[in-house]
UniProtKB/TrEMBL annotation:
This is Dephospho-CoA kinase. GO terms for molecular function: ATP binding; dephospho-CoA kinase activity. Its main location: cytoplasm. PANTHER family: BIFUNCTIONAL COENZYME A SYNTHASE-RELATED, DEPHOSPHO-COA KINASE-RELATED. Its EC number is 2.7.1.24. It comes from Thalassotalea piscium. SUPFAM superfamilies: P-loop containing nucleoside triphosphate hydrolases (SSF52540).
Length: 203
């Protein structure tokens, strides 16, 4: 496992992907929990078979892949279905995350997980980094990026841990309300140096 692990999280539309890519430019290994979550339900997987048995064939795209948008809409309006899905997927995702962390080659690595705190993944990391933005900016950026409606985006925000709770759990916070990329790059550079030093102490 990587010598030192930083958990990167933040609400929907906060800019986690942008921040993680800046860390990658410094040679940092990035493990993305969302990518792992997609991989466990790929076409032909046992998890996808179980999901379709439970939800029905109409949750498949014409390609035979999972209609993630449709499933997301369903589980946000049905707590019983959400619980069933979480009980199926979370153990698989956690197992694959741990395997990826064990194989990370850099001095320290980044675990990017939107639900880091909700799913208790912070226990896998040495430090928690939160990308923080206002709710107004979350909605604006997500509307620009996704096909989701504002009602759906607000439902996602409300289903996640509160902004205040994230801030309380953070060891480090990047304020990403600003659109100044140079400022963001400098914040990442400083944190990268700090994490490198921490990883050497942890050896």
């Amino acid at each position: 496992m990587a010598n030192y692990i930083v958990g990167l999280s933040g609400g929907i539309g906060s800019g986690k992907t942008t921040v993680s890519k800046l860390f990658e430019q410094h040679g940092v290994s990035v493990i993305d929990a969302d990518i792992i979550a997609r991989d466990v339900v790929v076409k032909g997987s046992e998890a996808l078979t179980l999901i379709i048995e439970y939800f029905g064939e109409n949750f498949l795209l014409p390609t035979g892949e999972l209609d993630r948008t449709k499933l997301r809409t369903r589980i946000f309006s049905n707590s019983k279905d959400k619980l069933w899905l979480n009980n199926l997927l979370h153990p698989l995702i956690r197992k694959n995350i741990i395997q990826a962390l064990e194989q990370a080659p850099s001095d320290y690595c980044l675990l990017v997980a939107p639900l880091l705190l909700e799913n208790n993944l912070q226990h896998l990391v040495d430090r928690v980094l939160i990308v923080d933005v206002s709710e107004e900016i979350q909605i604006k950026r997500t509307l620009t990026r996704d096909k989701s409606s504002e009602v759906e985006i607000r439902a996602i925000i409300n289903s996640q841990i509160s902004r205040h709770s994230r801030q309380q759990a953070a060891d480090d916070i990047i304020n990403n309300n600003d659109t100044d990329l140079a400022k963001l790059e400098e914040n990442v550079r400083l944190l990268h140096q700090k994490y490198l030093e921490n990883s050497k102490i942890a050896e």
